[in-house]
Amino acid sequence: MNCLLIFLNLFFLYTNSFTIYAEVEKSQIINLPYDYLDLKLRDLSIYQKYYPGMIDVKRIDNKRTSWTYEIDMPLSKNYKTTYILEERSPQKGVLIYETLNNSNDYMFCQASLTQININKTELKIKMIIKTVREKGSDIHFLAPLLGQNFISNKMRDKLEEDMNIFFEKVINEFYTEYNNSK
């Protein structure tokens, strides 16, 4: 009887749909003018250049962009997903990239700026990634055993680490470029 229960548990672990969800947000005060940062954040090349794992970011047309994100997976090949995102700017200082269809690969990236004074601006970035697969093993052979919560927490940790690296690198570039343009 116990063997049957173990078999059924493993069967359902490997056959039920599997969802990974991760959300991170980071903000930082930057000693640069609002308008300069607003212009720089609209340059898609910074995301590919400075966000770890973002191996390709390109414009498809005036509203849509393609972002390919690759995650280094332990004991397995890298996991790579391409997101088709619509770009919108609902108000000055807010830039949103979001998957709008019912894709199994959802991404949301929002960058917002708040002017504190003429040379000081708060930058806030929020990133959400959601991946749904028919089976956990479609993501990684151990995913069904580790569980959706464990994998989601690891994904959130990875996104948080990547966001910290992105902020450090891109802000350093912004300071360097701004100071060299004077």
Tell me what you see in this structure.
- Helices cover 36% and strands 38% of the residues.
- The chain is α+β, with helices and mostly antiparallel strands and 182 residues long.
- A seven-stranded antiparallel sheet has the order 1-7-6-5-4-3-2.
- β3 and β4 form a beta hairpin.
- The protein is elongated and about 55 Å long.
- The model has no long low-confidence stretch (mean pLDDT 85).
Discrete helix count: 5
Silhouette: elongated
Placed side by side, the strands forming the largest sheet appear as 1-7-6-5-4-3-2
- Low-confidence blocks of residues: none
Along the chain, the helix and strand elements come as: HEHHEEEEEEHH
Kindly estimate the percentage of residues that lie in beta strands according to DSSP: 35-45%
Helical percentage: 25-40%
Number of strands: 7
Overall average residue pLDDT: 85
Give a short account of the largest sheet.
7 strands, antiparallel
Q: What distance lies between the first and last C-alpha atoms, to the nearest angstrom?
A: 77 Å
How big is the Rg?
19 Å
Judged by helices, strands and strand pairing, the structural class is alpha+beta
Structural topology:
Layout: H1 2-15, E1 18-30, H2 34-41, H3 45-50, E2 54-59, E3 64-71, E4 79-88, E5 94-98, E6 105-117, E7 120-133, H4 143-146, H5 148-180
Antiparallel strand pairs: 1-7, 2-3, 3-4, 4-5, 5-6, 6-7
